[in-house]
Amino acid sequence: MPRIYMDHAATTPVDPEVLKAMMPYFSKKFGNASSLHQFGQEAAQALTDSRKTIAKALNAEDDEIYFTSSGTESNNTILKGIAFANRNKGKHIITTKIEHDCVLHASQWLESQGFSVTYLPVDKFGLVSPEDVRRAIRSDTILVSVMHANNEIGTIEPIREIGKICREKGVYFHTDACQSFTKIPLDVKVDNLDLVTINAHKIYGPKGVGAFYKKRGIKIEPLLHGGGHEKGLRSSTENIPGIVGFAKAVEIGMARMDTGAKKMSALRDKLIKGCLQIENTWLNGHPTNRLPNNANIGFAFIEGESIILNLDLKGIAASTGSACSSKSLEPSHVLLSLGQKHEEAHGSVRFSLGGSNTEKDVDYILKVLPGIVAKLRKMSPMGK
Fold first, then answer.
1. CATH superfamily of 4-12+257-379
2. 166 carries an active-site annotation
3. Which residues lie below 8 Å from residue 136, measured CB to CB, with a gap of 6+?
4. pLDDT per residue as tens digits for the range 313-334
5. Which residue in the list 166, 178, 275, 324 is annotated as catalytic?
6. Distances (CA, A) of 104 to 72, 76, 109, 119
7. Which pLDDT tens digit goes with each residue over 38-60?
8. What is the pLDDT of residues 4-26, one digit of tens each?
9. Cα–Cα dist 25/29, whole Å
10. Domain ranges of the chain
11. For residues 196 and 190, is the Cβ–Cβ distance under 8 A?
12. DSSP 8-state symbol, 218
């Protein structure tokens, strides 16, 4: 039986070149970057070089990149940090109904602390309207947070236009780019971005390391207090092996962006076309304005979890949505925001391709999937 991994939006394998770059920093170059001796300075240089690599990929300045442990920590730091550092200016934040759970839960927590949050709707494709953002901005608005591309349905948001509106209104603009970074272009200057969240394990880097971009001059209240690492914004001894691996993954990802996107888009389109040949199926997300590796398909009359388990028995790994909440029995908040009914939202499967996937993988999925769907529908109390 083949082993086909189609869940790269959940996490990716570490690229061999990334692992090779990391290895010396576990044993030979193991110093603490805050130490003054040679071992420490060796680690500090690796930290500086990594910061430079990631800044270049975003068209940012080196001192505008801050390392964290994850995309979740970066998002929490930005939302809570901006809120508390700017509460004298206002207590209103704008985000969307389809953000990652860490943004939504951080926003809900801020509401419990006296802040006001507007959750913008999306259209049937998952697109946020820039004009809705404009109308939602108030005199006390301090931050707008709209993800670059959705982790479940792959829809790419109009962040450049939204950023322009935020600049005109004098409001900070943040985007969560964990799913899009190195897959599609992202430029903090061109895209009018003040704050950006990225992480490593979605781009063939290690788990447990993330980063955020913060434009110079923007004040953030830190979540962690201690030794003053990352210029006082994230105290904790830096994860040098992870950071080195992150930077190497970024370097590789940027070099392969165009060819990788072209290859994955072709496989994605073939997979979508084949899945839609099955009766009573539909595509979730925008038909064209989507990540090159995302295919999210809805299947009527059956549950996505059942499809996933049956695919797994055939050696295929996919997902029903965000891996962070895939054990929840609740339907996807993203799909519900598109206007789907609960039973429709329960029937979705996300295939997310990666660099190792081939046309043979897609052919195999399209060979076994119709039989799985037919079997489950025959057993289903919901209909066919």
1. Aspartate Aminotransferase, domain 1 (3.90.1150.10)
2. no
3. 94, 118, 120
4. 999 999 996 445 445 668 899 9
5. 324
6. 11, 10, 9, 9
7. 999 999 999 999 999 999 999 99
8. 999 999 999 999 999 999 999 99
9. 5
10. 4-12+257-379, 16-252
11. no
12. -
User: Which are the contacts of 219, defined by CB distance < 8 A and separation ≥ 6?
Assistant: 85, 86
What gap in Å lies between CA 221 and CA 72, rounded to an integer? 16
Q: Specify whether the backbone of 297 is left (phi greater than 0), alpha (psi in -120 to 50) or beta.
A: beta
Q: Which two tokens stand for residue 341?
A: 């009914």
Q: Is the dihedral of CA 219, 224, 225, 227 positive or negative?
A: negative
One-letter amino acid of 197? T
The rounded distance, in Å, linking the Cα atoms of 129 and 158 is: 8
Kindly state the tokens that stand for 137: 């901005």
Question: Which class for 123: exposed (0-12), middle (13-18), buried (19 or more C-beta within 10 A)?
Answer: middle
What are 206's two structure tokens?
């290690």
CATH number of 16-252: 3.40.640.10
Name the residue among 12, 72, 69, 66 with its Cα closest to residue 242: 69
Q: Is the pTM of this model over 0.70?
A: yes
